[in-house]
Amino acid sequence: xxxxxxxxxxxxxxxxxxxxxxxxxxxxxxxxxxxxxxxxxxxxxxxxxxxxxxxxxxxxxxxxxxxxxxxxxxxxxxxxxxxxxxxxxxxxxxxxxxxxxxxxxxxxxxxxxxxxxxxxxxxxxxxxxxxxxxxxxxxxxxxxxxxxxxxxxxxxxxxxxxxxxxxxxxxxxxxxxxxxxxxxxxxxxxxxxxxxxxxxxxxxxxxxx
Amino acid sequence: xxxxxxxxxxxxxxxxxxxxxxxxxxxxxxxxxxxxxxxxxxxxxxxxxxxxxxxxxxxxxxxxxxxxxxxxxxxxxxxxxxxxxxxxxxxxxxxxxxxxxxxxxxxxxxxxxxxxxxxxxxxxxxxxxxxxxxxxxxxxxxxxxxxxxxxxxxxxxxxxxxxxxxxxxxxxxxxxxxxxxxxxxxxxxxxxxxxxxxxxxxxxxxxxxxxxxxxxxxxxxxxxxxxxxxxxxxxxxxxxxxxxxxxxxxxxxxxxxxxxxxxxxxxxxxxxxxxxxxxxxxxxxxxxxxxxxxxxxxxxxxxxxxxxxxxxxxxxxxxxxxxxxxxxxxxxxxxxxxxxxxxxxxxxxxxxxxxxxxxxxxxxxxxxxxxxxxxxxxxxxxxxxxxxxxxxxxxxxxxxxxxxxxxxxxxxxxxxxxxxxxxxxxxxxxxxxxxxxxxxxxxxxxxxxxxxxxxxxxxxxxxxxxxxxxxxxxxxxxxxxxxxxxxxxxxxxxxxxxxxxxxxxxxxxxxxxxxxxxxxxxxxxxxxxxxxxxxx
Lengths: 209, 536
What we know:
- The complex is a heterodimer.
- By secondary structure, chain A is mainly α.
- Chain A has helices at about 5-15, 20-25, 30-50, 65-90, 100-125, 130-155, 160-209.
- In chain A, helix 3 packs antiparallel against helix 4 (about 65-90).
- The longest helix of chain A is centred in the C-terminal third of the chain and has 48 residues, at about 160-210.
- The mean pLDDT of chain A is about 95.
- The N and C termini of chain B lie far apart (about 125 Å).
- Chain B is extended and about 135 Å long.
- By secondary structure, chain B is of the alpha+beta class.
């Protein structure tokens, strides 16, 4: 029973929200390569959503295209989630390893990514009166991914449902803390750099006389 | 011989150079002291062409105000009558008689000017039954008159002059007797009723509608303009502003819930800002402007006779007036705010709003599309076209007149070729004649390729003519999503109609292929199994 290819396992997880991740864990399956590919597609979906959405639905500021916020919103958020969740759940007797959390979380994102692509495709054919279809697809993808994410975390850590929800809320707070500290660190290093640079220029002026 | 040749050559080349130099110097021209700009879909300021240029400035001397102190002139007022304006506050153009009326507030007089802005009448007061401001000669004198409105009555075809006589705490309705004399018809003073609860009555601006109801804007009366009927009876307040919702207002609302009565009594009250000025159009709609800095709530209103604001963003529209963001001037380290002080509706339907703080005029069409911005207020205000204290704006057809109360002159703006193209196009566009406006819009685009409204106009023309893909291109340039959406609907319909057979064939072929594939998959497996069995 349950002899799948790695892609087959992904399919099994996505279409079996209740048991899929438990099976994945039981069979010790899940590919890190596929997980990384999914994160890449997550980023691509963000870019596509911004750039290729039909003109009548696209509200983004088209004069400049800056890829950094999109990277932050996809890749950086994902890895902050993984690290935050690992940090919280290690304290809360979770069984998941960092690798497991990474793979399971990535698998859970698939419906959202696919639905984003489909919504972008539809937005090029539909008019504003029919926008309900696009929203329906987007909400479907989002809802499905949220359910999968809860199931994935439950399976990874072998939690009860309530504890999973609590750990997810904890993870969100941890994410905020991590990002805050990261920004703090960045600005600190920037100041250190500025200090070092001004010392350097000072010395350079002295030497030149 | 050869020497001669050389000298001739020299003379020729020198003459040529001189001629060139002469033609080059004649090519000098005066530019406006401001850069014209417009706002795009994202409210970014986009450079544009000047739609107006300064025609001339008219001072008191140009108006012929020295005639007022000339004993031999029929307009003689007195030996000490000033020959210049002083803190003039209002200008009105009476299009029926082609006369301008000017409130020379600092000199306490009303001036009547003809179409060329030459003085034809001067009024320092009026005769009639009144007790306010009566001088020795029996005339009731004006004291700082700040607002004027002139209209021919539809009841008795008489020309009535309505004057807001601010420092005399009254508004008056007069008839013109001669170039020097007015006589009183009706005097409006502070209403003697409980409803009028303000301490003062200082009318600053005045209007009359067709039924000769009088609307008076009073200083520090924030319930709206004070309305009187034809007989001079107080009717109530008309079209009050609302309080602008800011964080401070919300915070105070919360504090009031927990504060004691004594504390509440000590708090400042949140009251709306009174509007600064108004104008009335042919159809009886009243347009108001509020002078509060960067006002977003009720900055400009179009009121119907019941006092209901038609340009209300609270019901889902997105009207915006004046400058979008406060402008920061790095050279003087000041942030300019937008302070709309006067509004005028022109005969051709354009709405012109004057910004006191920056000396800018914002011109809109009937549907509140921003057409152009011109005028400025800067340190070099001696330049024609820049202002010190722009107090009033008036329009005659496409000409714009701006009264400056500090420079004491009137600046006359006339439209440029670009402005003319825009106005012609907008006139047709607002009537819904999109196809007719096409060639005008093309002229506009030739002069300013970044003029978004022109592309909307061209897009609508293309949509009207059934050229959908062209319309889509135009709407995309203008970033007009709603009209793009409409055009897209038609374009999609047309595409489906033209390619229906191809699409259907592709769909049917795909379905057939899928069925064949599935059947083959099952049967094929069976066939292989059967062959295997046969082989055994």
